[in-house]
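Q: Entry one of two.
A:
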Amino acid sequence: MKSGRFVGPDRAAVVGNIRRAVAAKAFNIKVEEHDPVFSKSEEQRIVTHYLQQRQDKLFKLKTLVCRLVVNAYALQVTKDVEVVGVDKIRGIKSGGVITSNHFSPFENMAVRKAVHLAGRHRMYIVSQDTNLAMKGLLGFVMNYDDTIPLSGRPSFLNGPFKQMLNAAFAGHHWVLIYPEQEMWFNYRKPRPPKRGAYFYAAEAGVPIISCFTEIRDLPVRENQQLREVRYILHVLDPIYPDPKLSARDNSFYMMQRDYVQKCQAYTAAYGKPLSYAFTQQDIAGWDPKRQATE
């Protein structure tokens, strides 16, 4: 898999940003370069436009078409993705929150494959609201591929966002939320999660469908900086809310258990204990030593 094609060929600055973020123990900050920046008013306009177009009679049709196309594409491009442990989630009949490590714009395709193998054909994705402003085919996908936009405004989080989330749960659908928040390109290690995803799951009484994607280097070189990689998605034990606990207490319980599972999955996958001391090997496919000679 050519992981660099989705993010641009030059990853050196991003790897440097990851190194500095790890040193600062700032595991949830943005590390990508040149991401578009929007004002608060622009973000509100983007979300308002999205909510308005959801009322359009063609919205459901466009969503259906987009879902069919993306699902077909996912099956095609994930042929070499191995999914381990899918039997753990086949029996889940309710809605749920999928959590996974976030290292590529593409890794949700591996999650889609796991969802498909579990007998599901629809997956919602919580995505930053500004992604709705993307243009072209990617913009179409962001707007119509069962996206639930995330905005930091409390009025939106407690209103439209929660309504869309609960509607998905009521339909017994699974929603992919990245508790690590920002994408860290090809970073192998699980990062300490934020609590929001777990609170929404606890409040709705749905399980956490815990996943961890292992990234393996391949000998084939993608470009001067990267080798191709392949994914092995590990489906971990689902985590259910404890009926004796409040939503708040459950969110902490589920978050901690999910993080522990992902750390254990990392150790099992790579054969070494998790340490946050940064090394070049933390970035899958990263091979800077040969840049000067190739």
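Q: Entry two of two.
A:
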Amino acid sequence: MSGQIYFVSGIDTEIGKTYATGFLAKLWTEQGKKVITQKLIQTGNADISEDIEKHREIMGQGWFQEDHDKLTMPEIFSYPASPHLATRLDNREIDFQKIENATKTLAERFEIVLLEGAGGLMVPLTTSLLTIDYVAQHQFPVILVTSGRLGSINHTLLSLEALKSRGLKLHALVYNLKDESKDPLISQDTSNFLKDYLAIHFPEAKWIELAKMN
């Protein structure tokens, strides 16, 4: 029986997707689940995914055999940019079949696979395929990472509208307390607004607060 695959995305770059992915993997592992993380496409690295390394650090976990076998990091490109540009600069295309096979293998071995994307939902993987298109092709439920920084309400609602327009399921909205606004009034109002919005428009989705970790 295959495990559950969740796609982890964010409302913006540097919103805390990698932190959230590692945090949830650690949390669910401690709850007795067999969990692994995977990076859809890693850019800005040569041979090893720095995001997978960060996941393992947060989890307090050494490398899985699947990490050594590169199942968790099937595609790595050297230039730190959107995949559609990084692939062009490396002069090779994304092997989507390789990624899909790796994800399938992980889902056969683990109860939960947290598949972290690159950037937000509308990031282009190729000139004709957006990240959200890939998610829609596979109908992955989405875990969306947001925060209390100024502007995050707008970015969050745009991301949620994109999910709704493609009929995708929002599994959870993760509120990253590590990325709070320096203005506590803005942070608190953002949290309250998004909770209320979620309850009305995505009542089945979970609200998860991502605590600051040392």
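A: Comment on entry two: The domain at 2-208 is CATH 3.40.50.300 (Rossmann fold). The chain has a mean pLDDT of 95.
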